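Good morning C.,

I know you're traveling, so I'll keep this short. The sequence:
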Amino acid sequence: MNSLQLTQISTYLLDKKLPIDILVEVYDHFTTQISELQKEEGLTFEEAFDQVKDSWKDELKLYWDGSWNLNDNSKFLRKMYLSINLGVLKQMFIYGGMVLISLFLMAQLTSAELFSYLFTAAMVLFTFLPPIQYLRHRDDFDLAKKYNKYVLTYYQHSPAIFFSSFAVLIPNIDRIFNNSPTVFSVFRFMQPEYSTDRFLFTFIVIIFLVFGNALIFITQKKYLTQIQKVKPFLIFLKPQA
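The tokens, ready to paste straight into the viewer:
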């Protein structure tokens, strides 16, 4: 296939509102299937292209499914987005669970006083990791703004990429430190000294910081991985003036 024919394929897929990272994968399927049809059945490019488009017609047809999302999307994209979201949530629970297990082990190996400092420092560290990662890869994150006429990757729409949990950490950092002995007691299977209501609010803040920051960090990593796949295709796209 020549460059004009390859451009026809990419233009067709762009019209189907495919994010560029997903378009790259579908593009590979299209070119492979077209090449196989040309080789095995002796078809011209146009004939093979039409057959491949027809085989993907139902999957790539744009329509509104009556959901809260008013945008027209294809069956293929909806399945991809569901798979992506479930994958991110699964990783969030795994990584968040690993953090809680680490904190539990920390409580077994330290005194209550030392645990208070280490535990509070851990909450601060978890909150700083996503902004640090964002600043380290600022150029890659800015590509979504530079090419805002296109969807480079599904992850760019996630508010988790740019979200910071400082608004939760800062007003509650004293509460986290002061209630660390209670967390220590729970991890040591001891009777907490404070009331259940007081601990419950702190526990909710801690869970939010652990799992919330895990979600932010994972989404950022997913974005960065996908944007590397997109970069070779940026030469075919026009940046925002």
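Safe travels,
E.
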